[in-house]
Amino acid sequence: MAVLKLYRDKLKHNYKYLDKVFKEHNIDWGIVTKLLCGEEAFLKEVLALGVREIHDSRVTNIKAIKKVAPDVQTVYIKPSPKKSIPEIVKYADVSFETELDTIRMVSEEALRQGKVHKIIIMIEMGDLREGVMGDDVVSFYEKVFELPGISVVGLGANFNCLHGVMPTRDKLIQLSLYKQIIDAKFNKVIPWVSGGTSVTIPLLFNHQLPQGINHFRIGEALFFGLNLFTGETFDGMHNDVLELETEIIELTVKPMVPSGMLAENPSGESYELDESLYGKTSHRAILDVGLLDINPKFLIPEDGHEKEKLSVIGASSDMLVVELGENQSGYKVGDTLRFKLRYMGALSLLNSRYVSKEVIA
User: Fold this and answer.
1) How far is CA 44 from each of CA 31, 220, 236, rounded to the nearest angstrom?
2) Which of 35, 71, 222, 281 has the smallest CB count inside 10 Å?
3) Do the record's keywords include Isomerase (predicted)?
4) What's the Cα-to-Cα distance from 103 to each of 78, 91, 114, rounded to whole Å?
């Protein structure tokens, strides 16, 4: 069985690195754990770091977090589905909201449960996912402030999640100005302007982050150390907190070009023949993981495979095919190949019951 490994020391290193950066800039932050899909062993490793705030987008994951660490502040990071409101109010201390009718229902449920539920109102800043339109912000807040059982603790925005719109200093200044307008008009002090996610970190390092942005929600940077502006790893961070280890279940010298009449494969792909490869062969390995577990484009062969000229050829539902060139390392059936991962690849692996999960001390 393929194994997804989490390296405890690398996770701890990345956490300390980020925590130091945010403390130096007086920024509050929480860890986004939706990547972990509620995997209890991995959640425990995150919580053991001394985390004070956890963000997730699934109620079942929030419940799992509260079970392990009831005192950690939990944040539900998408607008609440109406049918899930009772559980969200019960298990999430904070939720992101954008619909007035939904917030009214949250208010009613909070009163039923004898709680004050905190909310962050998300504002649309151009990426066109969730968010209240800018022209409606003042009237929206006015109505929300009237609701009992609700405490508005922030306003926020998302970037890069749907259309790839990146955060800029100007957009974040605009977000900060919304807070100043709301504070002044309603004589309130909203604690957080939550404009920071992993994609915003480069602006912080480049001294382009407006002072008003005082809250970050971090997932990808913690687990992958990735600078989403450059595609490179931040200096001083690990990009391999998570690693996939796969077993070679077949290894044979085979032609590099298929033979016979070609049609679409089950994934709807059509193979284009490269005539320059006719007559050539390569060591072709089959690995014990497939499309049901991960899209191959999210796999990054480990550096140690360079001399094998490893290339991912493709995958079927439960098998991945790679070429090892001349197989200079002498791999054989039963040996393992390791891959670093991109975020969406790790997400699908964590959601696969066919891939085991293991913490490496």
Assistant:
1) 13, 18, 24
2) 71
3) yes
4) 13, 16, 16
Q: In CATH, what number is assigned to the domain containing residue 325? A: 2.40.30
Residues 54 and 200 in one domain: yes
* Residues listed for the chain: 361
The H or E element spanning position 266 is none
Which phi and psi angles does 9 have, rounded to 5°? -65, -40
Per-residue confidence band for 275, with pLDDT thresholds at 50, 70 and 90: confident
Amino acid type, 24: E
- Which tokens in the block code for residue 16? 């300390």
Answer yes or no: do 71 and 202 share one domain: yes
Domain that holds residue 116: 8-224
Q: What are phi and psi of 129, to 5 degrees?
A: -100, -120
Residues 180 and 295 in one domain: no
Encode pLDDT of 75-96 as tens digits: 999 999 999 999 999 999 999 9
Judging by beta carbons within 10 Å of its beta carbon (0-12, 13-18, 19+), is residue 231 exposed, middle or buried?
Answer: exposed
- State if pTM tops 0.90: yes
What values do phi and psi take at 279, rounded to 5?
A: 85, -5
143 and 37: one domain?
yes
Q: What residues have CB less than 8 Å from 268, skipping those under 6 apart?
A: none
Structure-block tokens of residue 317:
């539902």
Residues 300 and 354 in one domain: yes
Structure token pair of residue 44: 């425990």
